[in-house]
Fold:
Amino acid sequence: MARRTFEVYRGTAADGKLENYDVEVEPGMVVLDAIFRIQAGESPDLAVRWNCKAGKCGSCGCEINGRPKLSCMTRISDYPDGESITVTPMKAFPIIKDLVTDVSQNYRANKKIPQFRPRPKDAEDGWRMYQFEVDKAQEMRKCIECFLCQDVCHVLRSHGKHEEFAGPAYMVRTAAFSMNPIDTVDRIEFLKETGGIGYCNITKCCTEVCPEHITITDNAIIPLKERVVDRYYDPIKALVRLVRRGGKNG
Amino acid sequence: MEIRERYDHDVLVIGAGGAGLRAAIAAQEEGLSVGLVCKSLLGKAHTVMAEGGIAAALGVVRDEDNWRVHFRDTMRGGKGLNDYRMAQIHATEAPDRVREMEGWGALFDRTDDGRMNQRPFGGHTYARLAHVGDRTGLELIRTLQDHAVHEGADVYMECTIVKLFAVDGRVAGALGYWRPTGEFVLFRARSIVLATGGIGKAWKVTSNSWEYSGDGMAMAYDLGAELLGLEFVQFHPTGMVWPPSVRGTLVTEGVRGEGGILTNSEGERFMFRYVPEMFQGDYAETEDEADRWVGGDRVNNRRPPELLTRDVVAKAITAEVEAGRGSPHGGAFLDIAAKRSPEYIKKKLPSMYHQFKELAEVDITAQAMEVGPTTHYVMGGIKVHPETAETAVPGLYAAGEVAAGLHGGNRLGGNSLSDLVVFGKRAGEAAAKSATAAELAEISESDLETAITESLAPFQRQGGHNPFEVQEQLQRVMQDKVGIARTAEGLQEAIEDVRGLRGSLKACSVSGDRAYNPGWNTWLDLRSLLLVSEAVAISALGREETRGAHTRIDFPETDPEQQKNNTLVTEEDGRMVARKDPIPVVPEDLQTLIKEGV
Structure:
C-alpha cells in the first residue's frame, strides 16, 4: 500500500491555504477517492461536490496540479510517484469553501438563452428527423455541465467577463438548440448581444479540457460565429438591411 | 428563532430528477406557483446517470408492440406483486410522455426512416427503449430541466429538506437547510410532491451517490405515510468490480441489449442454464439462435438469455462466482467485442467505452469487462394511490423511485425513466388540483425550533464518532446481512445492528462550522438512512420465500400463497412494525392477458 501527499485548498475566498494530507492509496484510485479518505479520517468537514463518481454528472470539477479536471475521472497513478498532487477549486468562480465554488452565474447564463421551440409536428406521432441531421446537435447535448470549459476560458478566468460573455458551455447549449433540426428560434441577436460571442478569440482551451470530448470551438463556437458574421457583417446583407430600415423609418 | 428565509408556494416539489421536474412542469401548467428544491445542483440528480433508455411501447421498431405487451412484461417481471393499475397506466401513457419530450428539445437516436429508434432490454418482449447512445438520462434531465426553468419554476439548489410538517392532518411545509451556508429555510405549501429517489447509499457496493439516503421515505413515514414492499431492492447484475475504488459503478444493460454476452472463467456462456420456468420458451436456446437475433433477424429467433430480468441475471452471476467460476476479481465476463465492431461499440456505448478505458484500463472494443451485482434501485417505497400518487398523508404526493407499486418484486430496465415522467406528471397535476382547494397553514414555531435543535445536536458534542464511520458500518451491515442472499438469522442481526447504529449516531460529533460541512450533512442524511434500513430489514425478515429481487437462502422456493400480499411498514405506538397488505385483485381480462399473452 503506497502513500501519497495531497495538497488541498482549505478555506474560503477570503482566507484559505493549501493543507498537506498524507493518504494511503490503492491501485486504481482516483483523486476523489483520496478526498473521501481525508473526509473519513482527519477532516470530515472538507467540502467537495460530487454525485455520480463516473464522469456523468459533472459535479466534481476542480483543478488538479492547476489543470481543470473531474476529480472522479482522474487517476492518482497519472501523476509521478513521490510528487505531491495539488487539488484546488475552479479558479474562475468565487470560492464557497474548500473545493466548492459558487457556480450560479452559469445557471443565470443558461436562463438567458432563448428557449427551444419546435416546428409543427410532421405527423401525428411527432417529427421525422434522420440520424445524420441530429448527429451534430447530439454532440452538443453530451455536455454534462461540469463548467471546466468555463473555468479554463480566459475571458471568464482572467478577465471576469461573466456578465458579458455566456462562456463556452452556453455556446454549446445554444448550438444544441440551434442545430436541432426542428428548432425554429433565431438566436443570432442573442449570441451577438447578450451571449457576447465576440469575446471568444478561439484559443481552443475549452475543447482541450472537455471531459466529454466535445469539439467546442470547431463545432459549436465557430459555426455560431459564422451565423453572426453572416447576419451582421456581410456587406451586401448589411446594405439591404440599411435600405430596408431607411424605407421603414422614412 | 433562527429561520431567516421563508418561502410560500402553491406546490412544493422536493427532488429535481425526472419525476420532480415532470411534476413541477405539470403543476406550472395549471398556472400555480411552484417551488422546486434539489439537494444538489440542478441537473445532477440520479436521473442523469441513467444510461440504457426509456421504455415505451411506441411500436416503431416492432409494430406488434403496444401497451398490453408492455403491461404484461412489467407484471411478469415484477413477479406478481405490482399494483396492476399503476402498471396499466404506465404502459398506456409512457409513449405520449416520451414523444412530448421531443417537442421540448430531446433528441433521441433515430431509425432509418427518421423515427425514434428503440433498443432491446432485459424482460421486454420487443425492442422498446427509446435512447440516446448510453446517456439517455442526461438527455432526459437536461430537456426537463430547461423546460421547467424556462416555464418559470423557482429552483432552490443545494437545499436539503430535513423535516416535513403537517397541520390538522394535512401536509403544510418543509424545513430545509442551504448546504453552502448551513442556514435554515422554511417552505410552506398547499401541497407537496416528494420525488427524492431511493436508498442505495445504505449498501457498500452501490451505483448510487451520497444523495440516495431515503430522506423522502423517512420524512413521509414520520408524518404517518406507509412504506410498501421495501424488501425488494434491485441489485443490478452488471456493476464494475475492479479496480476497488469503482466497485459498483454501473455498466449499462444496453451492453447486453446490443448483443454483449456473459461468460464464466471456463469460457461458458452460462445464462442458457438459468432460464426460470416462467420464461421457458421465451429465450434463445442455442448460441446460434442468439447470434442470429443479434444479427438482426428478430422475428424468427428469440432473444439471448443475457436479456432475462435483472433479478435472474444478478443471481446467476452470484451463483457462478460461488461455484468457483468467477472472473479474477470476483465477477463474470461481459463481452461486447466478440459480437460488435469497434465503431459500433463506440457509437452505441460511448460512455461505457470511456468509463472502462479511463477507470479500469480496459478497451471494451477488444477485451471483455469484468462485472458483478451492484445495489441499484429500490422497488419499494411510499405507498401511493395508483391514479393520483397521493400518499396516506393528505396533500402529500410521491413519484418516481421514492414511491412504490409499479415495479412489484423486480423492475425491468427502462421502466424507471418512464415511471418518472408518467407518474411525475400525474403527481404534479393531482398536487395542483388539491392545492387550489387548500390554504397555507401556520406551522408551529416551537415545532420548528425543536427540529432545528435536533439537527444541530452533533455540534454540541465533542470527541464522538465521525459520521462517516457510522455510514461505513451501516453499509457493511446492509451489504453482508441484507444483500442479495438473506437469512432470518442475518436479518435479525441486521435489525439489531441498525438499531445499535442509531445509538452511535446519537453519539456522533461534528467539527467545523455549518457551511458546506459534509460531516454534518452526512449525519443528517444518516437519520433517514438508518430508519429506512431498519424498514428494509424487517420487511425482508417477514417475507419467508424467494421472489424477484428478494432471495432467502432459508426459503429458496417461491410460495404462491405469498403472492397475495405486499409488506407494509407503519408506525404503531411509536414502534416500527411490518404487516401484510393484500394486493389489489387484478381484473379477469388483465389476468388472462398476463397468463396467456396478447
